[in-house]
Amino acid sequence: VTAVATLARAEVDELATLARLALTEAEAERLRDELGAILAHVAALAEVDVDGVAPMTHAVPMDLAPRADLATASLPVAAALGGTTSARDDQFVVPAAIPGTDRD
Amino acid sequence: VTDLLRATLAEQAAAVRARRVSAVELARAYLARIDAHDGALGAYLARADEPALAAAAAVDAAVARGVDPGPLAGVPLALKDMLVTRGVATTAGSKMLAGWVPPYDGTAVTRLAAAGAVMLGKLNCDEFGMGSSTEHSAFFPTRNPWDLGRVPGGSSGGSAAAVAAGLCAASLGTDTGGSVRQPAAFCGVVGLKPTYGRVSRHGVVAFASSLDQVGPIARTVADAALLLEVVAGADPLDGTSIDAPAPRLGPACGAPVAGQRVGLPREYLDGDLAPEVRAAVHRAVDILRAAGATVVDVTLPHTRHALPAYYLLAPAEAASNLARYDGVRFGHRAEGAATLAELHARSRGEGFGPEVKRRIMLGTYVLRAGTYDAYYQRAQQVRARIAADVDAALASVDVLLTPVTPTPAFPLGAAQTPLELYLGDVFTLGASLAGVPALAVPCGATAAGLPLGVQLIGRALDEASVLRAGAAIERAQPAFTFPPAFGAGPP
After folding, report:
1. Rounded to two decimals, what is the model's pTM?
2. Which chain A residue has its CA at the smallest distance from B322's CA?
3. d(C-alpha B479, C-alpha A78), whole Å
4. What's the mean per-residue pLDDT of chain A?
């Protein structure tokens, strides 16, 4: 961890792209300042001696055994589609992933 | 009915089972209080009057048939809007989920209903549980019932405010970094974050999966214990739920604390702390000593690193969890997007509020190739050291006694940068990162009448010890009262 006082604007834009988040100009500028301040604060982690310390991924050690392999009722299709306004033939409808390849 | 509004959950259920009051009458009494008072408080995001009255009628019918409806027979509860409820709108405080009516119930919700509880509605919270004031709700802020110009805390602010003001008998919140305990302290009620994994996370809107835990917010320690007994236990629908029987916790709430060993972490009292909060901790020390407990100093050397570790880990997990909101299957969908990528980005840009965007961006930074090892992995290693500190301290004492928050409830709209707001979580994050149980219990008030609380932290799966010490502190307080503006009886 190194102290990052400022982020480049291009870095903010790249993060927004990775996060699939459309930001306004004002939001991007504000986030640049705010993230910089937070990253400067978390630089304090560099002080901690973590040599040989295993990363902790969960609070309680546990074996994630699969549950019994039994057929159970699943969500009916109509209920699964109930949260969208855009469904057809029991499927979710989305715009083309590759521009110009719409099926409609 | 008026007397029952201040009765414990067990007393309310006993009255319903003995037909001294009907569950329908009890539900109507709370609905009338919501009608009268929630305009000022802003606790409810959604009301479920009709399903609540139908559930209450079913409880009454069971009692009439001689069937026991369960330990929460007819008890009117309301739930933080992070818990998924079939047929009742669930938003997590976000525009992203506005109007979503889930097709299923979360496990905790199912267990409450199976125990006879009646669900009155859904309570406001900071968006996706991210915040400490409920001002980050996309809909409206909730106010503190003790001072309507102040925040109720967060993120479970609607739960704490509604319980304190008597607009439900008790509530379930969720706690990722303090979201049950901090609002409980700000509103003068009890908040319990159980051991990580005690309560199933199935049907809980996910924020940070290695930290999220469902916890009761209630007027008394015994009420919180009863709620946890009902909702705790392994669940095949959550692989991280702990395979241990649901604990019997009632007896702990009446057990004497003589012989109990209490540790006072030096680092928690060294930092910036309002004098009233420090005084509350010292008052709790005096109460516990007078009751026969031994109080000793202990050390948690990495206390100041909990905040930076948490604010890397939680946003990283949030960035992953919130990837599911893509405008396709449920949640907000942007109009007129030409490509799938544009649909994703615009739906998310329009649906998420500023705090959620901040954390998604921070989490994306942390998880990105090139910064992953330096940030995410190091934060996980620091988390291991913090957990080891807590384990070491709890090897020599039964519970740790600490402040919950650095200050009492702060004013609505107080100008704070995001980082300043995060600093308020400094005392609750340690137990979250270590995954151990922690209880916020009222302990006095400021000169201006704002509630103060203290926190008790225990060993994994040892909720009984924090409840035992918490109940001893509670017994030394004046009996629970509703805030002056919220009256004692029906509206």
Report:
1. 0.97
2. A19
3. 51
4. 89
